[in-house]
TrEMBL record, chain A:
InterPro entries: AAA+_ATPase, ABC_Ni/Peptide_Import, ABC_transporter-like_ATP-bd, ABC_transporter-like_CS, Oligopep_ABC_C, P-loop_NTPase. One of its GO terms (molecular function) is ATP hydrolysis activity. Residues 5-256 form the ABC transporter domain. This is Oligopeptide transport system ATP-binding protein. It comes from Actinomycetospora succinea. It is a peripheral membrane protein. GO terms for biological process: peptide transport.
Automatic annotation (TrEMBL), chain B:
The chain crosses the membrane at residues 44-64, 108-131, 143-163, 169-191, 234-260, 280-305. It comes from the Bacteria. It comes from Actinomycetospora succinea. Residues 1-22 are annotated as: Disordered. This is Oligopeptide transport system permease protein. Residues 104-302 form the ABC transmembrane type-1 domain. GO terms for biological process: transmembrane transport. Belongs to the binding-protein-dependent transport system permease family. Keywords: Cell membrane, Membrane, Transmembrane, Transmembrane helix, Transport.
UniProtKB/TrEMBL annotation, chain C:
The keyword Nucleotide-binding applies. InterPro entries: AAA+_ATPase, ABC_transp_ATP-bind, ABC_transporter-like_ATP-bd, ABC_transporter-like_CS, Oligopep_ABC_C, P-loop_NTPase. PANTHER family: D,D-DIPEPTIDE TRANSPORT ATP-BINDING PROTEIN DDPF-RELATED, TRANSPORT ATP-BINDING PROTEIN. Residues 6-258 form the ABC transporter domain. This is Oligopeptide transport system ATP-binding protein. The keyword Metal-binding does not apply. Keywords: ATP-binding, Nucleotide-binding, Transport. CDD domains: ABC_NikE_OppD_transporters (cd03257). GO terms for biological process: peptide transport; transmembrane transport. It comes from Actinomycetospora succinea.
Length: 340, 314, 335
C-alpha cells in the first residue's frame, strides 16, 4: 500500500538570477497513517517550505518548484488541478502554525471560524455548525466549550488559541496534520499540554502527523521517526531511538552537544557547532555542512554525500556515517534521572 | 539636520572612493554613507537635474524668455502653439510659455515652503508627542484634531480674509507668505500623526532601551535613534504633498483669496484654463505638465533619499 | 560570602490600566512585579526563570532604571540605587549594563556596528579618549568573536547570533560589574545559542562579571547559573542554588515546570514523572487571592486561598520556597 504522504526529491528555489536561493535541494520523506514524523531543523533549513509545498500554500512567486513530486495516497499533487488541491486541504490534510493569534481572524468569534467549515464544506445550517464547533472545542479540551465558542480570539490565552487552531484544522477530519512549530510561542507548561493533546488526537484518529520543530526535546518525546534537515536537504533520517542513541551525521551530533539540558550536570561546557549555516544562494560545494564540520576531509569538499541506507532504516548523508554510528553519541546516553 | 551626527570623516577618507569597509577608514555614519549611496543612483541625478532646472526657472525666468507674461493682446486670443509662441496663447492673448516660466517661482515657493513648514512643524510636534507620550501627547493630539477638523476651503477663507480686506492690493511676497501660512496651519496635523505613530513605534524598540540604559539623554535618544528611523514616512508624505500644496494654492486662487494677477502661478493658470479645456487645451496642458514634472521630480528625490537612508536597501 | 553587589528588597512595579481618551481614569493595576527580593554577588550568575508574564523582564527594566519602581528598595555596592540622580546615575550606568533579547530590534538599523559599539564612549567620553575609541571598539568586537574589520557594516549584514554578539560588545564597552541578560539567547537557533552561552561564560571569567540572567529556558539557566530564582505572577516562589532547584525543587510550580521541559532522550519517554498543570497563567491584572499559584496547583487547599505563603525555608526543605506545603519531590526513579 502506498504511504499516506510521500515527498520525493522535492526542489524549490526562491528568486532568480544570481540571487537565486536553493531552498530545497531534493527532499524526500514519507508518513504513514497514525505515525508521527518529526522534521527537525534550524531556521533556513527548509523544514517549513517543504510543509507549505505539501499543503500547496507556498507563495509562487517568489517560490518556484523546480522538481520532485508530492503524492498523497498515491495521487500526484504537484501540477494537480488547483480545485482538487483546495478540496484536499481541510478534508484530507490540514496545517497548524506557530502563531495562532495571527492565524485566527480577530473580527469573528472562534466558534464562527470553526463553524464556517461545517457550513461551507458540509452544507450544515448555521445553528448545527455552531453545535459542531462547540463539540470540536470540547474535543481539544477547552473548558466550558459551549460558552467559549462565542468568544473572540483575543479573549483566549495563547494555549487556548493553539487549541482552537487544532480544533479548526481537525474539523473536517483530515488524515494528515502538519504542525509547524506548534508550541514554539508557548510557555513550557502549556507546551507540554499541547504536545500531549496532539499525540492523543493522533492516536485516537489514526492521523499521520508531521511535526516541524527545532526543539530536540519535543522531538524526543513524541516522534516515531525523525528527519533532520540542513540547508534544504535531509541529512539524517531514522527512528527516534536510534537517532539519539547512534547519531550518524556530524550536524545531528553537533545539535545534541549544543543543547543545554535540565538534566545536565552543572558546569558541563556546551560544544557548539562553529560558524553559521550557509547562505542558501551560495551553498558550498560538496557536503553543505563541511565548512562547520570538525571531521571534514577532501572528499567532503568535492562530493555531495547522498542520503544512504546504513541498515535497519537508518539513513544519513555523510561520507563517514558508519564511523559515527559506531562511536555512539558524544554525550553519555544514560542520564541521571532527576527525581522530581 | 543634514550634517553628520556621528564622527566626521577623517581627512584621510577620500570622498570619491567607494566604501570597502577597510580597516584604514573611519566610521562615517548614516548621513555620510547615505550620500555615498545617493551619488550612485541615476534616479537621484535625474531628479536633481530637474529640480535645478526648475529652480533656475524660478530664480531667473528672463534666461528662458524675454516675453512679458502679463501683456495680453486680445487679437492673439486662443491662438494655438506655433513658431511665435511655442505653447500658444491663452484667452486673454498672453504667451502661455512665458506665463509657465514666470509661474514657476510662486508655485515652487508655495510648494516648497508649505511642504517644509508642514513637515517641520508636524515632525517636531509628532516627535514630542510620540516620545513623551504623556500630557504633551494628549495636548498636541487634541490641538491637531481641531486643526485637522477644519475643512481646508473654509479654513483658508477664514484665515486669508482676516489678513486682507477684500480688494486690498497685496505684494506678491506677502501673498505667498500668507498662502503658505494658511496651508501649514491647516495641514501640519497630518504630518504630526505620521511622525507620532512612527516615533511611538520606534521609541518602543530595544535599541532605544539600550541607549537609555547606557545613560543617553533625551536629545541623544531623539536625534540619533528615533529621528533617523522615523524620517522615511514623513519624507514620502512631504514629497507627495508638494504637488498637493501647489494644487491647494490653485484652489485658494480660484476662490479669489490666494495668489492673483499680476502674480502668475501654475495654480492660477490651471484654474483659469480649466473652464475652457476643449477650447484652448494648451493653456491647461502646459502648466499642468510642468506641475506633474515638478511633483514627479520631488517624489523621485524623496524616494531616493528615503532608500539611501535605509542601510537595509543597499 | 561576599557582600552582595546588588541587593533588592520588596520591589514592586504596578502598571496602571487606564481608560478614556480625554480624561484618563485608572481602572486597575497590572501587578507586573509584586514584592521581589534578591541578592546578586560579585562574579556570580543568578538566574531568574519564569514563564511569559511572570514579570521577569519588568524586573530587569526597573533595575536598569528604565522605568521607576512603585515601591521597594535596591542598593548597588551599598548605595541606594533608586535615589541616584544626574551625574551619579550616569556614573552608575557604567557599572551595570543590559543585553536585550531580540537581536533584530536591539540594534539601531541605521547605525554602523562601529557606531553602536562606540556609543557608550560618546555618552561617557571620560572612559576612552576620542582618538582611542576606534581601537577600543575593534578590541571589543574581537573579544566577542567578531571580525574587527566589520566596523563599518550595518546590523542587517549580520546573522542573529552575530548581532547578539554586537549587543554584548556594547554592554561590555564600559567594563560594567553587572550585566543584566534579558533572554539573551531565546531568539537564536540551537547551534548559535550554544556559541553565545559559551561566550557569556568566557566573558564572565575574563572580566569577573556578575550576571542577572533572565530566561524562560530551564536548560539554559541550569547550564549557566550558580543560583536560581523561580518567578510566578510577579513574585519569587522558590530560590536556591542550581543543585537545590534542579535536584530538590520543593515548590509545586517549580516541580511542574521542570517536569514539563522535554528532555532530548527518547529512552526516557513515559518514564519521567509528569506533572501537568491545568489551564493558563492568570492575568497579572487580577491575580488570585492568597497564593498566586493556587488556581493551577495540584496541592491547593483552603489555606492557600487566604494566606499568601512566605518565601522561607520549611522543616522538610533546605532552601526557601513560597508554599505552605513545600516538600522535596517524591523520588521517581526509572525502573
Amino acid at each position: 500500500m502506498a504511504p499516506l504522504l510521500e515527498v520525493d526529491d522535492l526542489r524549490v528555489e526562491f528568486g532568480r538570477g544570481r540571487e537565486t536561493a536553493s531552498v530545497l535541494n531534493g527532499v524526500s520523506y514519507h508518513v504513514d497513517e497514525g505515525e508521527t514524523l518529526a522534521v527537525l531543523g534550524e531556521s533556513g533549513s527548509g523544514k517549513s517550505v517543504t510543509a507549505q509545498t505539501v499543503m500547496g500554500i507556498l507563495d509562487t512567486p517568489p517560490g518556484r518548484i523546480t522538481g520532485g513530486s508530492v503524492r498523497f495516497r498515491g495521487e500526484e499533487l504537484l501540477g494537480a488541478d488547483p480545485e482538487r488541491r483546495r478540496l484536499l486541504r481541510g478534508e484530507s490534510m490540514a496545517m497548524i502554525f506557530q502563531d495562532a493569534l495571527s492565524a485566527l481572524n480577530p473580527v469573528y468569534s472562534v466558534g464562527f471560524q470553526i463553524a464556517e467549515q461545517f457550513r461551507f464544506r458540509r452544507g450544515m445550517s448555521r445553528k448545527d455548525a455552531m453545535v459542531k464547533a462547540a463539540e470540536m472545542l470540547d474535543l481539544v479540551k477547552i473548558p466550558n466549550a459551549k460558552q467559549r465558542v462565542k468568544e473572540y480570539p483575543h479573549q483566549f490565552s495563547g494555549g487556548m488559541r493553539q487549541r482552537a487552531m487544532i480544533a479548526m484544522s481537525l474539523a473536517l477530519d483530515p488524515e494528515l496534520l502538519i504542525a509547524d512549530e506548534p508550541t514554539t510561542a508557548l510557555d513550557v507548561t502549556v507546551q507540554a499540554q499541547i504536545m500531549e493533546l496532539l499525540d492523543e488526537l493522533r492516536r485516537e484518529r489514526g492521523m499521520g502527523l508531521i511535526l516541524i520543530t527545532h526543539d530536540l526535546g519535543v522531538v524526543a518525546e513524541v516522534a516515531d521517526r525523525i528527519a533532520v534537515m540542513y540547508a534544504g536537504r535531509i541529512v539524517e533520517h531514522t527512528d527516534a531511538a536510534s537517532l539519539y542513541a547512534h547519531p550518524a551525521h556530524p550536524y545531528t551530533r553537533g545539535l545534541m552537544d549544543s543543547v543545554p539540558r535540565v538534566d545536565d550536570v552543572a558546569g558541563a561546557p556546551l560544544r557548539p557547532i562553529p560558524g553559521l549555516p550557509p547562505s542558501l544562494s551560495a551553498i558550498p560545494d560538496g557536503c553543505p555542512f563541511h565548512p562547520r564540520c570538525a571531521h571534514a576531509v577532501d572528499v567532503c569538499t568535492d562530493e555531495v554525500p547522498a542520503l544512504r541506507e546504513l541498515g535497519s532504516g537508518h539513513q544519513a548523508a555523510c561520507h563517514f556515517a558508519e564511523r559515527f554510528v559506531a562511536e555512539g553519541p558524544d554525550r553519555p546516553t544514560t542520564h541521571e534521572v532527576v527525581s522530581r | 539636520m543634514t550634517e553628520p551626527l556621528t564622527t566626521a570623516p577623517s581627512p584621510g577618507v577620500d570622498d570619491g572612493v567607494v566604501p570597502d569597509n577597510g580597516p584604514g577608514q573611519a566610521t562615517r555614519g548614516l548621513w555620510a554613507d547615505a550620500w555615498t549611496e545617493l551619488r550612485g543612483r541615476p534616479r537621484f541625478w535625474i531628479a536633481a537635474a530637474l529640480i535645478v532646472l526648475l529652480l533656475l526657472m524660478a530664480l531667473a525666468p528672463s534666461l528662458f524668455t524675454s516675453v512679458d507674461p502679463t501683456v495680453g493682446l486680445l487679437e492673439r486670443s486662443r491662438e494655438p502653439p506655433g513658431p511665435d509662441a511655442v505653447f500658444g496663447y491663452d484667452l486673454q492673448g498672453r504667451d502661455v510659455y512665458a506665463r509657465t516660466i514666470y509661474g514657476a517661482a510662486p508655485s515652487l515657493a508655495v510648494g516648497f515652503l508649505a511642504t517644509f513648514g508642514t513637515v517641520v512643524v508636524g515632525s517636531l510636534a509628532g516627535l514630542l508627542a510620540g516620545y513623551s507620550q504623556g500630557w504633551p501627547d494628549s495636548l498636541l493630539s487634541r490641538i491637531g484634531e481641531i486643526f485637522a477638523g477644519l475643512p481646508f476651503v473654509l479654513g483658508g477663507i477664514v484665515i486669508l480674509t482676516s489678513f486682507n480686506k477684500p480688494g486690498q492690493i497685496v505684494g506678491a511676497g506677502q501673498l505667498v507668505f500668507q498662502v503658505v501660512l494658511t496651508i501649514v496651519v491647516l495641514t501640519w496635523p497630518v504630518a504630526m500623526r505620521i511622525m507620532r505613530a512612527a516615533a511611538i513605534e520606534t521609541s518602543q524598540q530595544d535599541y532605544v532601551k539600550a541607549a537609555k540604559a547606557l545613560g543617553a539623554g533625551p536629545f541623544r535618544v531623539v536625534l540619533r535613534h528615533i529621528l533617523p528611523n522615523t524620517l522615511a514616512p514623513v519624507l514620502v508624505y512631504g514629497a507627495i504633498q508638494f504637488g498637493v500644496f501647489i494644487g491647494a494654492e490653485a484652489t485658494l486662487s480660484f476662490l479669489g483669496i490666494g495668489l492673483r494677477d499680476p502674480v502668475v502661478s501654475w495654480g492660477v493658470m490651471i484654474s483659469e484654463a480649466r473652464d475652457r479645456v476643449q477650447d484652448i487645451p494648451w493653456a491647461l496642458f502646459f502648466p499642468a505638465g510642468f506641475l506633474v514634472i515638478t511633483v514627479l521630480a520631488f517624489v523621485m528625490m524623496g524616494d531616493a533619499v528615503r532608500d539611501a537612508l535605509d542601510p537595509r536597501g543597499r | 560570602m561576599s557582600q552582595p553587589i546588588l541587593s533588592v528588597r520588596d520591589l514592586v512595579k504596578h502598571f496602571p490600566v487606564t481608560r478614556g481618551v480625554l480624561f484618563r481614569k485608572t481602572v486597575g493595576h497590572v501587578r507586573a512585579v509584586d514584592g521581589v527580593s534578591l541578592d546578586l554577588h560579585p562574579g556570580e550568575t543568578l538566574g531568574v526563570v519564569g514563564e511569559s508574564g511572570c514579570g521577569k523582564s519588568t524586573l530587569a527594566q526597573v533595575l536598569m532604571r528604565l522605568t521607576p519602581p512603585t515601591s521597594g528598595t535596591a542598593t548597588f555596592e551599598g548605595e541606594d540605587l533608586f535615589a541616584k540622580r544626574g551625574a551619579a546615575l550616569t556614573a552608575w550606568r557604567r557599572d551595570m549594563q543590559i543585553v536585550l533579547q531580540d537581536p533584530y530590534t536591539s540594534l539601531n538599523p541605521r547605525k554602523t556596528v562601529g557606531d553602536i559599539v562606540g556609543e557608550p564612549f560618546d555618552i561617557h567620553p571620560e572612559v576612552a579618549p576620542k582618538g582611542d575609541r576606534r581601537r577600543r571598539v575593534q578590541e571589543l568586537l574581537e573579544v566577542v568573536g567578531l571580525n574587527p574589520e566589520h566596523i563599518r557594516r550595518y546590523p542587517h549584514q549580520f546573522s542573529g547570533g552575530q548581532r547578539q554578539r554586537v549587543g554584548i560588545a556594547r554592554a561590555l564597552a564600559l567594563r560594567p560589574k553587572v550585566i543584566v541578560c534579558d533572554e539573551p539567547v531565546s531568539a537564536l537557533d540551537v547551534s548559535i545559542q550554544a556559541q553565545v552561552l559559551n561566550l557569556l561564560s568566557d566573558l564572565q571569567r575574563e572580566f569577573g562579571l556578575a550576571y542577572l540572567f533572565i530566561a524562560h529556558d530551564l536548560g539554559v539557566v541550569r547550564h549557566l547559573c550558580d543560583r536560581v530564582a523561580v518567578m510566578y505572577l510577579g513574585s519569587i516562589v522558590e530560590t536556591g542554588t542550581a543543585e537545590e532547584i534542579y535536584g530538590r525543587a520543593s515548590h509545586p510550580y517549580t516541580q511542574a515546570l521542570l517536569s514539563s521541559v522535554p528532555v532530548p532522550d527518547p529512552s526516557l519517554r513515559g518514564r519521567r514523572a509528569a506533572i501537568r498543570l491545568e489551564g493558563d497563567v492568570p492575568s497579572p491584572a487580577d491575580p488570585p487571592s492568597g497564593c498566586r499559584f493556587r488556581t493551577r496547583c495540584p496541592k491547593a487547599a483552603a489555606i492557600c486561598a487566604q494566606d499568601p505563603p512566605a518565601l522561607e525555608v520549611r522543616p522538610s526543605t533546605d532552601h526557601p520556597a513560597a508554599c505552605h506545603f513545600a516538600e522535596p519531590p517524591h523520588l521517581v526513579r526509572a525502573d
